[in-house]
Write a structure and sequence with these properties.
The protein is an alpha+beta fold. The protein has 2 domains: 18-156 and 318-398, no CATH class; 170-311. 45% of the residues lie in helices and 14% in strands. The protein contains 14 helices and 10 strands. The strands form 3 sheets. Strands 5-6-7-8-10-9 form a 6-stranded antiparallel β-sheet, sandwiched between helices. It has a two-stranded antiparallel ribbon with strand order 1-4. A hairpin with a 2-residue loop joins β9 (296-301) and β10 (304-311). α4 (94-111) runs antiparallel to α12 and α5 (116-136) runs parallel beside α12 (325-344). The longest helix has 28 residues, at 371-398. The radius of gyration is 21 Å and the shape is globular.
């Protein structure tokens, strides 16, 4: 792949972003699954996908893979493992989140060279964790994380602004260095961002953090286009370095502005949801991931729906490269419980009990995971692996050695 210029022109962005997205999705089958949300939901529209049980109408993540779960900090400084990406959130079928997470766990298991029996047991553990969360109806203390998750949490809790600055912008100075990930803005973009940050809702969002003065002024110190993520590449994305307070006592924070695209996840019919995509994402976040939802704001930028949130040092994603059999079991159960708590907090106790009973209908005597879930994963894994190999073939033909 040719190197990315430090000065990618505005008109050249789409081509460079498509090339970058193709590269990221070619890196592994697990990476391909993360970036192929549309393909996943196209399969769900097939005859096999329609055999999934219909759960209660609640807000679902819509793209519930492993990396979309991780430590998230609240405005008050509390940190919990929650869903951390809600771009696809809709009021829909909670079974879709279970299938998406199961597919992600299955591809992670294959990447770790774990046998198929272990994959089956991982799905069993995921469902046990999910059912346990339904029993508790989303209340009570967070479950004890397994060792791999505790390491991520430990890293999250020790992180400060300097860690975020070095990781995200590769510098602790009050500028965003242009380069591989950050590109210069057009005059229209710079003007629109300045106007957005001059609004009172954005100022209130930034000063709502516990340690900040509610009346503090906020200004744009620097801003850049941000090439980030995989499935969202091609949409508007900006990093803004904001200054808070008077010049002599000014502190800095990093703000993420992201375009809100139309959700690929199917919604339940006749359910009231915000028509504006940014408002939909913020509303879903408040139901599924309260720590994140309280830190988000829906807005308009250059006549496009965007959502605004501050990047906290504690916000990290769970990255799973290699797992032993025992680790795979504990991680699957814990992540199933995290998703279960996000769903259960939206339901009354009777509704939780009814949904859990529905999930238990298709259990076999020897495997405590629904047959419909296993059948979905059996079909989804090979279809995604075949699509991944075809993607790699096309990428190899298009990109010179």
């Amino acid at each position: 792949m040719t190197s990315i210029s430090k000065l990618v022109r505005y008109k050249d962005r789409p081509a460079v972003l498509l090339q970058r997205r193709a590269l990221k999705m070619a890196q592994s089958a697990h990476a391909y699954v993360r970036g192929s949300t549309v393909q996943f939901y196209e399969w769900l529209e097939s005859e096999a996908g329609r055999a999934v049980p219909h759960g209660p109408a609640i807000w679902i993540c819509g793209d519930c893979h492993i990396s979309n779960l991780g430590p998230v900090a609240s405005s008050e400084g509390h940190v919990e493992i929650q869903i951390r990406d809600l771009d696809q959130t809709v009021i829909g079928n909670p079974a879709h989140d279970l299938i998406r997470l199961g597919l992600s766990l299955a591809t992670a298991a294959r990447g770790s060279d774990l046998p198929g029996v272990t994959t089956a047991r991982m799905l069993e553990q995921m469902m046990e964790g999910y059912a346990a969360a339904l029993t508790g109806s989303g209340g009570g203390p967070e479950p004890l994380p397994p060792r791999q998750i505790r390491l991520v949490m430990k890293d999250a809790l020790r992180r400060k602004w300097k860690h975020l600055a070095k990781e995200r912008i590769e510098d602790t100075k009050p500028t965003i260095p242009l380069g591989k990930r950050f590109w210069g803005l057009s005059k229209e973009e710079a003007r629109a961002i300045a106007e957005l940050f001059g609004s009172e809702p954005v100022r209130r969002l930034i000063t709502s953090v516990r340690s900040r003065d509610d009346d503090a002024p906020v200004e744009v110190v620097d801003a850049a286009y941000w090439m980030k993520g995989c499935s969202s590449l091609g949409s508007l994305r900006y990093a803004v370095l904001a200054g808070i307070g008077p010049p002599k006592d000014e502190s800095l924070c990093l703000i993420d502005i992201k375009q809100a695209a139309v959700a690929a996840a199917p919604r339940y019919p006749k359910q009231a949801m915000p028509r504006d995509n940014a408002q939909r994402i913020v509303e879903g976040a408040r139901h599924l991931s309260p720590h994140l939802g309280e830190r988000m704001l829906a807005a308009r930028l250059m006549d496009k729906a965007v959502f605004v949130r501050e990047m906290f040092p504690q916000d990290l994603k769970v990255e799973i490269d290699r797992l032993s059999r025992g680790e795979a079991m504990s991680v699957a159960r814990f992540l199933g419980e995290v998703v279960g708590r996000a769903h259960a907090r939206q339901l009354q106790r009777d509704a939780c009990k009814s949904w859990r009973k529905e999930l238990e209908r298709s259990h076999s005597k020897k495997l405590d995971a629904p047959s419909w879930l296993w059948n979905c994963i059996v079909q989804l894994v090979p279809s995604h692996e075949a699509a991944y190999l075809e993607h790699c073939r096309r990428y190899a033909l298009e990109v010179p050695d």
